[in-house]
Amino acid sequence: MKLWGGRFQKETDGLVNDFNSSIQFDQRLYREDIQGSMAHAAMLGQCGIISQEDAAAIQAGLEGILADIEAGKVEFTADNEDIHMNVEALLTQRIGDAGKRLHTARSRNDQVAVDLRLYLRREIGEIIQAILDFQQALAEKAKAHQKTVMPGYTHLQRAQPISFAQHLLAYCQMLARDVTRLEDCGRRMNQCPLGSGALAGTTYPIDRWQTAKALGFDAPMSNSLDGVSDRDYALELLSALSILMTHLSRLAEETILWCSWEFKFIELDDAYSTGSSIMPQKKNPDVAELVRGKTGRVYGDLMGLLTAMKGLALAYNKDMQEDKEPVFDAIDTVKMCLPVFTGMIETMRVLPENMRAAAGRGFINATDCADYLTKKGMPFRDAYTAVGKLVYYCTEHHKVLEELSLEELQTVSPLFEEDVYDALNLENCMEQRRSYGGPAVAETTRQIQEIESFIQEHKE
Predict the structure, then answer these.
(1) Which residue stretches of 71-153 are H helix?
(2) Would you call 448 exposed, middle or buried from its count of C-beta atoms within 10 A (0-12, 13-18, 19+)?
(3) Secondary structure letter of residue 350 according to DSSP
(4) 227: closest CA among 248, 196, 261?
(5) Rounded average pLDDT over 358-363
(6) Which residues are catalytic?
(7) C-alpha distances in angstroms, 26 versus 192, 261, 309, 322, 419?
(8) Residue 369 to residues 267, 363, 366: CA-CA distances in angstroms?
(9) In angstroms, what CA-CA distances link 271 with 267, 268, 283?
């Protein structure tokens, strides 16, 4: 008979049993479930709700179950529906009536809520460490390419000269926000729902502060209805992971472009590429493509849980069993993507000469040409118009700005002098951008130091 079977006169239909069961996916919470149960049993004993002998027997029994699960000696069953009832049934089999007292002053509703918070708190820490490793890989690559000129783009059109270092450091900043966003999520979820009961608390004289402290929470949740019905923390985590995957996907897209023959800014290592079954010349960026594709999967996990939660009256509803699979899937996906992307970045070969050649086309020093005239006294809008005319002239004559003679430049303004060629030099254009956050070496050095300090501060 099921642990809740006292009110029922018939066995659960086999299909319903399978449909209702969650053990096939929530069994990964076994460690957190036992951790929560041990804290609960200790509190029951301390408060005199059960005897100290029973509390000690429960603790010892749970420790044995944990050891057996980790040794692969335990087989869970769908007849006990979920990880909570599987553990409780095993405990009762092993220690008898004392095991039946564990569930005093507790419901599966607050039990699953505390299990999931404990699990996600641990996973957040692991994901943050993987992000920091990825940041470090980008920062190391940036260090080597502070003087590597490449075209910066807007609208995927060549725009202004930047360094490859600055481009990579932009992603380091995105990842720093991902880290702090996950840390914020972890802080908000660090309240303990245990003791909320099914929804209305309990008549037993429990000490919720004791269990919260024992489990490393900042405090118990203030409202028992909220304690069992809240899944904001799961939604917030899925949102943070979706934003993280957006950043990975954007870099994945650029990686795919950069290693194409049309760009050829980088070459991926053979260990992070694949071939074609029919075209022997192919070297495909499958890692980047899969990261880009898996981003949609994580978005789907977020939308699935948002949709499941949107119409639920307080407090707990069985719909909320749908929280775990999308959260587990998103975590697994992110933890798979981060290390493989890190390895791909660490091993890729940068081709500076191709980046410089691309920067030499597309008039990406046009703004610098206009700035030159402005510094000579011409209003910027007039300078903008004059340089626009020069660009048109260049396109008609298949030239770039720095190839124009001084006489050709002076056809639009007598302010042009010999020093204009220094202003049009792409390396100078990049190095002159010393404003805070710009591509000049002094600025990318500052940014690298800032990122490395951030990594050190957040490393475990």
Answers:
(1) 83-95, 97-100, 108-143
(2) buried
(3) E
(4) 196
(5) 91
(6) 155, 276
(7) 19, 46, 19, 11, 70
(8) 33, 10, 5
(9) 12, 8, 11
C-alpha to C-alpha distance for 133 and 152, rounded to whole angstroms: 26
In the prediction, which pLDDT does 23 show? Answer: 81
Give the dihedral sign, CA 220/224/225/227: positive
The CA distance from 249 to 377, in Å, is 44
3-state secondary structure of 429: helix
Per-residue pLDDT averaged across 364-373, rounded? Answer: 94
Let me know: does 84 contact 197? Beta carbons within 8 Å: no
CB 244 within 8 A of CB 256: no
Question: Residue 442: how many CB atoms within 10 A of its CB?
Answer: 11
Alpha carbon of 155 to those of 191, 387, 392, 416, 434: distances in Å?
Answer: 45, 21, 20, 30, 24
Helix (H) or strand (E) holding 160: strand 157-163
Six-digit token string for 204: 């037993």
Q: How far is CA 254 from CA 171, 202, 208, 288, in A?
A: 12, 56, 51, 9
Tell me the β-bridge partners of 158.
Answer: 153
Tokens 């005897």 map to which residue? 51
- Which amino acid would we find at residue 391? V
Residue bearing tokens 């641990």: 122
Encode pLDDT of 222-275 as tens digits.
Answer: 999 999 999 999 999 999 999 999 999 999 999 999 999 999 999 999 999 888
The residue behind tokens 């069985």 is 318
DSSP assignments along 190-253, one per residue: -EE-TT-TTTT--SS---HHHHHHHTT-SEE-S-HHHHHH--HHHHHHHHHHHHHHHHHHHHHH
Kind plus residue range of the DSSP H or E element containing 321: none
Choose among 112, 330, 321: nearest CA to 236: 330
CA angle centred on 88, ends 83 and 94, rounded to 5°: 130
pLDDT of residue 32: 97
Structure tokens that stand for 238 in this block: 């899925």
- Tokens representing 64 are 């044995």
